[in-house]
């Protein structure tokens, strides 16, 4: 199993969003270009930053969409 296929399998298990998947693919593409000398290290860093941002956005969206029942709160949180 290649590393890329391993990452793809992990992404499917984690329920990766389309935006995160697209950003991850962009990082892989830019890294390949950088290895071939067709992209700069700065472009790789920008793509990696975009990936981190999309992961953060997905986490925030998941957190905001999580339903919390009153019974799950502590007494201090429920007042």
Write a short abstract of this structure.
70% of the residues lie in helices and 0% in strands. The protein is mainly α.
Can you walk me through this structure?
This protein is an all-alpha fold. The protein is built from three helices and no strands. Helix 2 runs antiparallel to helix 3. The longest helix is centred in the C-terminal third of the chain and has 25 residues. The protein is elongated and about 60 Å long. The termini are far apart.
What is the N-to-C succession of helices and strands? Answer: HHH
Morphology: elongated
Distance between the termini: 52 Å
Largest sheet geometry: none
Structural class: mainly alpha
C-alpha Rg, in Å? 18 Å
Share in β-strands: under 5%
Contiguous helical run count: 3
| Regions with little confidence, pLDDT below 50 for 5+ residues | none
Record field, number of beta strands? 0
Helix content: 55-70%
Average pLDDT metric: 84
Outline the fold blueprint.
Layout: H1 3-14, H2 18-35, H3 41-65
Helix pairs in contact: 2-3
